[in-house]
């Protein structure tokens, strides 16, 4: 059963969540506030923020809290940062996370089309500094498409995060109406494919929203395309409208349908699937899977040549 969502319809019971709270949640929130760190958990109004923070996971947003793109599903502020970058952020983020008693951190970013390398070197420096200060921490990077510049994708892969993620977000037909015009279905697939080509051992992940106007058949097509790009892990969750100015909810997908999506994805060969109404890109169930797979892995080796400042002056050699 799929529940259609007329205007101002109440959320079905499976989307109700308990208000966040608890000692660990409060301590983490207070620490993040004191250190002036942005989290996508709050900026994007994630319904799982209380559960994840209480269990020692968080998603830190790099490069400020203003995105140069304006996707119709996203609650993050859109604007023009005019090239502003806090060069101290990699150090500050690493030192802050070192004090937070986290076991798994996701480093995400706003899109920064105003920067020469889209912020790739900034992300890579943050991962590197985290490795130095918190050796046992598992790091996932949830990144943009870097306007399709292959060498900027390579810069982030070279920093060797434990998981490299980029979200396809919606099915092919809805890309131009839901995502910013500078995004592309084919480019997103190309970015994910590039990560696997650059480092075949890398774990890659992507995410899809449902309930924003797609059909089940289009979800099946998108899942097949992601698997064809070598993606290892996929998460599927219900789109929830952040405000009246964002794209409306077209339908509320029931838990049984999410189970069918999961079964389909597993049949396509994904190593792990998290599919449910409240599943989001950074989801604790997927993180538990990665912990089990990554605990015994050797420490990463950094390719410093790709992080050197002079690398930012080179013209891109390949577009995806």
Distinctive features:
alpha/beta; TIM Barrel; two-stranded antiparallel sheet; 11 helices; 15% strand; globular
Provide a short characterization of the protein structure.
Helices cover 35% and strands 15% of the residues. By secondary structure, it is of the alpha/beta class. The strands form three sheets. It has a seven-stranded parallel sheet, with helices on both faces.
Helix content: 25-40%
Total of DSSP H or I helical runs spanning 4+ residues: 11
Q: Quick one: overall form?
A: globular
Which structural class matches the secondary elements? alpha/beta
Q: How are the strands ordered across the major sheet?
A: 2-5-6-7-8-9-11
Tell me about the largest β-sheet.
7 strands, parallel
Q: Strand-and-helix sequence, N→C?
A: EHHHEEEHEHEHEHHEHEEHEH
Q: How many separate domains make up the residues?
A: 1
Report the portion of residues in β strands: 15-25%
Unreliable runs: 298-316
State Rg. Answer: 19 Å
Mean pLDDT: 84
CATH superfamily placement: Aldolase class I
CATH topology: TIM Barrel
Whole-Å distance between the termini? Answer: 39 Å
Number of strands: 11
Gross CATH architecture: Alpha-Beta Barrel
* Name of the CATH class: Alpha Beta
